[in-house]
Amino acid sequence: HALVGMSSGKIVLYKKRDWSVQHVLSGHDGEHGGVNCLAVHPTGKMALSGGRSDGKIILWDLMKGRLAFVHKLPPAPGSRGRRKATLTDLAWSADGQRYAFATDVGKITARDVNTGEDLLDVMLPSRANQISFIGGPEGLFLAAACDDGSLPVLAVGSLSDENEEAGARRAVMAIEPVDGPVAGDARFKCLKSVEGGSGFLVVTANSGGVVSLIDLEGAARMILSDDEDKAEGEGGQTGGGGSSDEDGDSSDEDGEEDIAAEFLESVRIGSGARITNLAVWSAASEGDGIIDGAYDMLETADVLDEEKGSDVEDDDLSVQEEDESVEEEPAKKKKQKIELTSRISGEKSREIEMDA
Questions:
Q1: What is the pTM assigned to this prediction?
Q2: Which of 125, 131, 146, 127 is nearest to 188 (CA)?
Q3: Can you tell me the distance from the alpha carbon of 169 to that of 120, in angstroms, rounded to the nearest whole number?
Q4: How big is the chain by its Cα radius of gyration, in Å?
Q5: What is the pLDDT of residues 85-114, one digit of tens each?
Q6: 34 in helix, strand or coil?
Q7: Which of 12, 47, 8 lies closest to 29, judged by CA?
Q8: What is the Cα–Cα distance from 83 to 62, expressed in whole angstroms?
Q9: Dihedral over alpha carbons 147, 151, 157, 163 (to 10 degrees)
Q10: What's the confidence (pLDDT) of residue 304?
Q11: Rounded to whole angstroms, how far apart are CA atoms 348 and 162?
């Protein structure tokens, strides 16, 4: 299925096989811009939508084609209640237990689906154009693509972490904002996480038409290491004099400096046209699994056919067997293919292969 938000405020659910209309959902105000963002639940049974200027977040039941819940955001700060908040983006966590939203004033909130508790509620200095959950078993984080060229990584409270301080805000600025009042081409317009792998890969696009594959694991490690250092400091207040400082200095010298954001690949689309949105997905390369096994079977069949129809002498066959034993087939590495797609007419997508 395909879910499309309209400027009229309606959401249309299409069946992709024949593009027939399954449901038409009405809930947003069409007089002030309609639907601005959509996020489908990992199960495909629910979806969130955000209005451009009606201040509404609506949860939809896609199975029954009806509205399930409406959450109204407070008015924008400084507007004295006259201007409603604009939702810039919505995101679900991979397990579907948390969701997050961002507004045009830089506010980012993450919530627990079951309890409705705020797991993260911060105000950034710049507008967040898109957000995405990243992380793994060690912790969950939110990455944000901001209008000032910055890319913060924010820690999200864990549902199983009962010892976490209430209201704790932990973050690392993986990419610093651009100096000056206007970020120009360095503004991050798009950000999508890549499924699989370490869980910390994201694809970004900026106003200058540059699409980048970035590893944010370093930023997450910095946050986790700060938490560990804090815990050790609280547990070792009564320790000996200067030994802890000496140990810390030696560990800094021995260890390598962490990189918050590692650019793995970057490509400029066309002549640098502005990118407004992108879609990212990952898939196994053709050398894996069933295809790889079928290829080996075909190779075996070819060798048998050659042996049946060959008239060469036994000496020649023995030499050929020795040569084949020497030339070993190189080990096939599993690779992950990531395809970057921009919404610019006439531009081709680019595929990047990485070791899985």
A1: 0.71
A2: 146
A3: 7
A4: 26
A5: 889 999 999 999 999 999 998 999 999 999
A6: coil
A7: 8
A8: 30
A9: -130
A10: 41
A11: 48
